[in-house]
Amino acid sequence: METNGGPSAKREELLIPLQKYKTTLYTHSDEVPEKLQPTDQNYKTALYTNTDNGDLVELTEDRPGQAARQRDGLNSVQTMLLIAGYCPGFAATIMMVAIIHTGWVGFLLFAVLTFMLAYAAILLRNCWNLVRATHFEDSNPYGAIAYEAFGNWARHMVNVLVDLVSFGASTVMLLATSQLVLIVIGHSLVGTYCYWPIIIGVIMSPAILVGMPKHFWQLGALSIITTILAILIMFIDASLYLHGNGEALHRLQPSMESWAFGKLIGGTIFLMGGHFVYPEVQRAMKEPGDFDRSALGYFLLIVLFLFPTLLITYMAYGDIMLPFDVTSSLLVILPRDGMVVIPGLLLLIGSGPVLLIVINPLFQHLDELLDVQADFNWKRILSRTCVILFLIFIAETVPDFTVLMTLVGGVLFPVLTFMAPAISYLRLRSLYMVDSFSERPKVHLFESIVSVTLIVATPVIIVYVLISTTLALSNHQTEYIKPCYVQWNTTISWWDNE
């Protein structure tokens, strides 16, 4: 109903989250505030209060309280950069080798996974838009989405999964940073690999203990800029090599190994599957309804740089990469020169911001559970120090970056990246958009088909990655590396490839 009026002026002033879609305003009853139900995901949230004559007036930024905080948020460009901040570029160098072992089928798989990842981001955006009017202060927005869709048990499950994904991704980044140090500095560090997770953990501790500002999009900008520059340099290097070796593609015979497909799946999802941080980023926006523009801009940016580089490396280096273990990275297969060291250094610079961004959801949830205040205090120091120590312990226990990246990306990520957004949106749509099919039948049908596909694909991906990784380990397709506390002078196998 359209309304310009409001509740009785006799009641105390209330802050009312009020949805506005087209010309329709939704308010509460004269008795008690009701749960507000949007009719579409494309609405904007505003805060209204009662005037003396009973009218509803939108609060502005010069008033204290939530209204000012709600409007002081990220714009679309800042949001895209913060999303891009979760872009572990070193995973792309692993994918470049995996694509050689999977051939043109690998390119098709990469394209399908990229579409699935992008569409899942849009579904998450729709989900938060449907629930944010009643949960805009929730410190765990992904959990709030699950709560509105399926209840309190779903909230707890999603929050635990976010913690696991955040911890797993942080462990992988710790190992990736350690390997990048060795790639940049070279053979003078042979036998020191096991010490670097500890050193890097100690170096990063001050920033982790203080806490990363949730709106610190500059970190994201640094991460994506260094990643894009590194990919661009590798593209130029491959183009120069191809120019003098035009017959390389004709000699290429991809082996189509199952482990290579598993690594490609895990690497792609790990690279672009930062969905577990998306609701929190969207919550921090000035206009949360514009999140899809930022997300799609990020995916387009990555694909524009990464896909041509995957293609040119496939054409240029395929014949020299195939003899190497599929677990290798492009940066350790190519001869060590400036075109390898510079990308490695750029990725090393960008890995710090990625680590800070991916570990933040875990700390936020931990602070809530332990009732840790926002200021610097002993509870924060103790809780985060324990997490850092456990992070280092897991990295020292499973020091193989590629295997861990594949398992985290292919086993932990898919539930939050594909299944949860799809199943939550279908449920929320049935609750809040009951006329969806009659008002937009084609869109409704398309959303349903893609959502069901994401739901069904999730267990398939998890099972395949688990089986292919297990077989690779049992068949010695990837070398098992002993825990560092068993053999501290561990030398990772690719040193011998240089």
Description:
The protein has 498 residues and is mostly helical. 65% of the residues lie in helices and 4% in strands. A 4-stranded antiparallel β-sheet has the order 2-1-3-4.
In terms of topology, how is this protein built?
Elements: E1 16-21, E2 24-25, E3 44-50, E4 56-58, H1 66-71, H2 76-85, H3 90-135, H4 141-150, H5 152-185, H6 196-210, H7 217-243, H8 258-272, H9 278-283, H10 291-321, H11 330-333, H12 338-369, H13 378-397, H14 401-432, H15 436-439, H16 441-474
Antiparallel strand pairs: 1-2, 1-3, 3-4
Helix pairs in contact: 2-7, 2-10, 3-4, 3-8, 3-10, 3-14, 4-5, 4-14, 5-6, 5-12, 5-13, 5-14, 6-13, 7-10, 7-12, 8-14, 8-16, 14-16
